[in-house]
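Task: sequence in, structure out. Protein: Prolyl oligopeptidase family serine peptidase.
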Amino acid sequence: MSESFPRLSARTRRFTLGVPRGFTISPDGGRVVFLRTKSGTDPVTCLWELDTETHVERLVVDPRTLHADEEDLPPEERARRERSREAAGGVVAYATDAAVRQACFALSGGLYVVELASGQTRALSTPGRVIDPRLSPDGRHVAYVCDGALRVQALDGGDDRALARPESETVTYGLAEFIAAEEMDRMRGYWWAPSSDALLVERADDAPVHLWHIADPANPGRPPVAQRYPAAGTPNALTELFVLGLDGSRVPVPFDEEYLVTAAWDSHALSIVTLTRDQRTMRLFSVDPATGATSLVREDTDPAWVDIVGGVPAHLDDGSLVWVAGSEGGHRLIVGDRAVTPPTLQVRAVLDVDHDSVLFSASGDPTEIHLWTWDGHSLLPVSTRSGVFSGRMSGGVGVLTEQSLDDEGVSTTVVRRDGMAVPIPSFAERPGLDLRVSLGRSGHRELATAVVLPTWYEPGSGKLPVLMDPYGGPHAQRVLNRRGAFLESQWFAEQGFAVIVADGRGTPGRGTEWERAVLGDLATPALEDQIDALHGVAEQYPDDLDLTRVAIRGWSFGGYLAALAVLRRPDVFHAAVAGAPVTDWRLYDTCYTERYLGDPEAQPEVYEKSSLFADAAKLERPLLLIHGLADDNVVAAHTLRLSSALLAAGRQHSVLPLSGVTHMTPQEVVAENLLLLQVDFL
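Result:
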């Protein structure tokens, strides 16, 4: 008997195991280093190298041969993996020198360096457990964080010393603070100088951040975990920057803004990007590493918020700045002082700069993400088939990843300078589901929508109950032209539902006006658009959808939206499953929440409008609340406080607490049974 989809999805970490990722291309384009597990059910990630000339692939590091216990991770590394949504183990991150001759990585808190050509791996002695090691560009030193200190060790057997030590237990050097990692996609806190003789290092002090405690009621003998959590309207961590020289020098780099978005240090400039607390002003500075003096390069403003885009700042060989900014209603690629993309092409990220060429991802149709290059003169499409693409580029060689509705999994191809394509195979398991997904537009706002029907269903043979399956929140999408986006939706459809997935206002890919429609109200536009999509699809399938039986499910913002739906529109939605829902935005973090709702002290009415508590007495439909008690992103207090409000109002509901489970729900048994229990509830 074949394995069930819920069990296989759980074992394969939603079919991500075995997929190549984390690519680094050598400067000459001759080699590609990457991460991949040995099979689609193996959770241990290995380091591999592909020779682009011979097409020979070689296993460089297998963590099992190093006898490292993967479960023995420092708390900071567990937190980093939670922030990055890392589901696997083993070598999940690595860094190379500039020539891509060596790589370093942390494994179970130990520090390792490998010579890529020979595969010779050695463990380095350190005074404690290691976080985020990075080699100097010249490959002579490795920096890492240990017990909050930024340390450097010479690889020739020289000294290991701390360049900066924490002055108190709330201080760290070289680590990204919670907000940077969770909301700005910045997972690092230090950057090597191209000359390898200094580093730009973040000092973060969590002392001002309010202290919360996350307990595990199922294990009362364990003490609660203390966590500094910057809830909306409360203080953030204090961040500072220093240029630390290997000679022991320390130069402060002052800035006034609340947030350090990112930094970059290349042969043209040491750059930092900052953002004001209200997120309406982003500034790019160049820094003199000798004095710490900053010079304003550009300032971007927006009356709503300025978007953070990955991969910038960067520079072409001639020193021209590569940037992305909002202009004429679109996210546009800026080279020098000129926008080189039209406002109708929504730039998602800059992926690489290779001499005079820029590789970036962008959308014309929001359901597709394509690759483009700017070669200094013209825009050239790299991907031509329908789907979702990403990639890297160096030395004239590209790595392209492709997903689509037509093909299973992720396809990875190395494109050499001569145009020859060399595949990097995926070992991912096949989901064993035939998809019946139709992408289109629905409702009067022409929302990007996917309709997922059971493969066994004959049109017009009887109306199906409907399951809305959204995320629905800003800066994230569900409706994309790739099979992996709809595997769970298809499985739910096979249980007898017509499943509708719709992206409403606030989601990316449709321009700045569309994204900013949620400013000041995270509830109304999101809910209106799900109803609009439902009615629009019902018009397209008049004989197939039963609008007297409509359920909605979701996780995180999707959980918030599911609970919101049955509370405010029971005339439309008849049952809801709300997983890890935000229920009161005052309990969620500063950067995300204040971007859309502002300061809760200055605008309390805005927070009230988006909160669920005032609607508790309206509940008249079945509602299942699911929450991991170890969730440090959307803490369990959200569900518990809503449950208390519902109880006080005398409203029946169900709560499923998950002991020891975080926001990711990585445990196999939990992930499998959550799907089964949701179907049983519905």
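The first strand starts at residue 21 and ends at 25.
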